[in-house]
Amino acid sequence: MFEKILIANRGEIACRVIKTARRMGIKTVAVYSDADRDAVHVAMADEAVHIGPAPAAQSYLVIEKIIEACKQTGAQAVHPGYGFLSEREAFPKALAEHGIVFIGPNPGAIAAMGDKIESKKAAAEANVSTVPGFLGVIESPEHAVKIADEIGYPVMIKASAGGGGKGMRIAESADEVKEGFERAKSEASSSFGDDRVFVEKFITDPRHIEIQVIGDKHGNVIYLGERECSIQRRNQKVIEEAPSPLLDEETRRKMGEQAVALAKAVNYDSAGTVEFVAGQDKSFYFLEMNTRLQVEHPVTEMITGLDLVELMIRVAAGEQLPLAQDDVKLNGWAVESRVYAEDPTRNFLPSIGRLTTYQPPEEGQFGEAIVRNDTGVEEGGEIAIHYDPMIAKLVTWAPTRIQAIESQARALDAFAIDGIRHNIPFLATLMAHPRWREGALSTGFIKEEFPEGFTAPQPEGKVALRLAAVAAAIDHKLNVRKRGISGQMRDPSLLAFQRERVVVLSGQRFEVTVDTVGNDLLVTAADGAVVPVRSAWRPGEPVWSGTVGDEPVAIQVRPLLNGVFLQHAGAAAEARVFTRREADLADLMPVKESANSGKQLLCPMPGLVKQIMVAEGQEVKNGEALAIVEAMKMENVLRAERDGKVSKIAAKEGDSLAVDAVIMEFE
After folding, report:
1. Neighbouring residues of 234: CB distance < 8 A, sequence distance ≥ 6
2. Which candidate in 12, 87, 176, 288 is catalytic?
């Protein structure tokens, strides 16, 4: 077994590998760029080596720097994580030349299956059903349009060396093919150093289901069940689960056996994932193979009880797999949410900055459920523009799917993040969505269910009553605290709280009566229903945890002027608690309207101006592309929201802009 391994990656996956290596008694080496000097993975590892500037092309993607770090520290093997060099055939070859073991598949398997064009050719030769498409290299936008016209729309334009949603576009017309081709090539070049793309038919109403395989160097390959990854946005997975609510045992076996046959055909000898696009009728087609550890591997670990990173390390060291196919048993259900630094209310645009608050939910077993949080950040850390916007992967396991979803919902409510925008409100909303809970999924789910984008819903029904009760409880605790301040003009004992209160939740009015009985606060609603509220919450804590009625509840709490902002189960509301007289007076206060910035194009997120597509004095039409801004390896096309004329261009290509910086102005 290895005595020391180097992790050629960063963030949560580097931390994940370090945890397993530490448990196995293996020393670890981290590598880091200028931007990651103070990162968590650097502190966790036994040693750390600086490998260059922040851009990945000058640090994490430079093979020579990784090899030099191995030589410097005496690392015997390298785990690549995912992304970066993990699927680059040249990487394990270069390592082997220096006597360093690659903890991943052999170069031949990577060449055959890691490249999406070559993998489809290999699958076709193995008589595996594949999605119709063009498997050659496409040289120009015109060539791409010709191919798309022959295949039939819609089509998927995809980077050959891509992954993680980068270098991928869906096009429904010739014009969209032209634009998507250029964007996919550019993203693929900057993210993977390989700008080749291909085109294939996009299956309508599909599901994305993948099979986890693991092989060793002795010819053994097994599959570890499937993962459902259909909840996606811009081809980037958002929520994953295992097993899939679609599959039955027979379909699972067929997909698994096909995945194993494909892996054996290329002598696959590590962890890998065979991805399928599946119809609602359980038909399926080979999509691609990822010759690395997947982001969503924890859900497979939770239902199998296996540590995939440990298996990868043992296989790389020459050991045989410790189990056969018949030994693989699937137990319970696991759900994973990807917590991203992005603003769901602004079309999920990336958000960067410092994590002034980072308090994940407690990990461990709670009743029958288990909570796990894989992360690579900590409070006070910084989310930089240079890398993927993932903050954490929140995973829950339970005996049934609904229990796992409910556990995930509670954990999301208890996850406190401030300093940047994040997608937890969106994830919490998804957990409560009836279609998600029913398992009626497709890769178009988010687009279909949120066609106008995401806005945190106003609280309704039980959620609204719960928030009103907690708002009243918070107000009561704050009042008690104020009465305890020394030096007041009147003795606090002479003051009596008014029991009758009015809770206003973003315009909704709830008349309640508040009483104290022992450690409980009894909130009586207007209809006479009495709700006991109990919590050890203290002012200043970002999460209110306790019980409302008999139900355990976690609610996000942020102070506002004369109130608090509450977020729970995806719903958000400003809450203010008044006496009856105060509430009547508050109704008379005018509402200030926000200013209109419709005559400016503002940068929606911190980013790099890649291209200005118009000139001063140019007439533009609604929907016309104006500029391209790159952030976190994704290129975002900014379009005109109405017809107009460009009067001034305030930014130039190559500029790094802050959020809401003016890019151009209109007459």
Report:
1. 165, 168, 348, 634
2. 288
